[in-house]
Amino acid sequence: MFHIERILFPTDLSDATARLAPLVKQIAELFHSELHVISVVANPISKDIISHDLVEFPDFHEYQKELIDALGKKLTSFVQNSFPELKNKKTSIVTGDPAEGILKYAKNNSIDLIIMGSITKPGLAEKIFGGTVYKVMANATCPVMTVNPFKMKE
Known about the structure:
The chain is α/β, with parallel strands linked by helices. It contains six helices and five strands, in the order E-H-H-E-H-H-E-H-E-H-E. The protein has a single domain, classed as HUPs (Rossmann fold, 3-Layer(aba) Sandwich), CATH 3.40.50.620.
């Protein structure tokens, strides 16, 4: 029998992913699952560029630390407001490519189900699920549930 002990809910903290919170909460409660809510900070500048003397970035690491700290506070607030009744919940900020970060987190934390928002964009068939969602769906070792947050019944 398949057990959903750990659910991963990656969020960019947008209104779109916030709309999914009630559904994620309901599924976590239904299966008595531990909920992992993460946000990924993409590295805007290659580490290779920073490590060379080609371009000087005196405050880059400080800027990235401040960004991660601010995002961490916002993520914690989002989780406290969206999932106050859930006892088993964890938050984490991941850095790097969003899809790779989600997949790595899922593997390292034995995630049983990933729930992600996907928004269809008319006329862009190859981007129906978006780049990150498509990469996660194609490479995850656990089921991935995708939901268009703007087509859910309220």
